[in-house]
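## Example record

The block below lists the input lines for one assembly entry, exactly as stored, with component labels intact.
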Amino acid sequence: MNDFSLWDILRNLLLALRWTVVLSLIAFVGGGLVGGALLFVRLRAGTVLERFIGGYVALFQGTPLLMQLFLAYFGIALFGVDVSAWTAAAVALTLYTSAYLTEIWRGCVASIPKGQWEASSSLALTFGEQLRHVVLPQAVKIATAPTVGFLVQVIKGTALASVIGFVELTKAGSMISNATFRPFEVFSCVALLYFGLCFPVSLYAKYLERKTYGRRA
Amino acid sequence: MEFDFGAVLVDWRLLARGIAWTIGLTAIATLIGMVVGVACAWARSSGPLWLKGIVGAYVELIRNTPFIVQLFFIFFGLPAAGLKLTPETASIIAMVLNLGAYATEIIRAGIEATPKGQIEAAVSLALNKVQVFMRVVLPPALKKVWPAMVSQIIIVMLGSAVCSQISVEDLSYAANLIQSRNFRAFEAFIIATLTYLALSIGLRKLLNWAGPKFFFGR
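Predicted structure tokens for the full assembly:
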């Protein structure tokens, strides 16, 4: 039987780590785009669409990400499209991220005093101009810290893609652990790699939070 | 494309048993996890320095790794180190550790918001350290952070779907079992998902009611 050194394990896990990073980035960027679009619609539209998007957010926040992944995996297949684990994971995580981000950003926009909207509209700015020159510059400042903080959730969320067979860090860990019979070392390494990926992001989010709100007394 | 939800609902007994497991796991994990959270929050805000360090490391380690990896480490990793656990025990331990870490941070935020004057007033009434914490600091702290706590408990409940991966027979396990029998995967997961949604709405209502009633008064 082959013997695996700790370095063999770690090297293979590091190779799988890049797929975790890629999937996180796809979900984060895709989710940001969809979330931004939803935010725009939400600010612009009447109560019906607003409610609809509210329901969308509640649906994704009130159900397990695992079920969302399964639904994407089996749901897209219903349209006769051959889905890979890649597509399903990317779609599910993008939608999941968009629901959370649009809600976070909505809160940030809502925290901008109403007078700012009123003042800018009294200056005859259009809705787009109001957003671009008055509201968003202020909202973005508040939104940065929680958005970066949510990136940690996205990275951790990609671990669930292993369940539908997407080979990222967690799946690679399971496979290597099955091959080496050394689950303790393997899953310790997997956990440490996630920690190495997420902890700096968490620290950065905390730093941004302090920068935005100042240190609490 | 046609749907056959009846084929899934026929197995309602399986679903019901799954729901019972999901609720049971969540209930146990919530109760123990809150105790862990309160204890660690106390340690982190007024314990000795070495304890603060340990609790801080625990909180950061849990918060920056995925729940599924924590679960796999406990269920697959620990037996190799000599600690064998049933899937159910492993799940409860993982959920408790997970909720405990988040609860620590949440409750600590509430504790830190306690005005100093209240503690001084309590001390001047000759309450001892434990009494001050349990009767003066903790109840208003819990009240302040209860909405965040409720959200976190719901996140843990939804996260418990992952426990099906180590063959705990919870709701998502039931959905998986049903779809493996009748190949109605989409219908089975739709029903499971909607059930989770209903559970999280119900749990939020329950906790919003139970919090003021049992933990911190009106």
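Chain A touches chain B through 39 residues (CB under 8 Å). Chain A has a mean pLDDT of 93.
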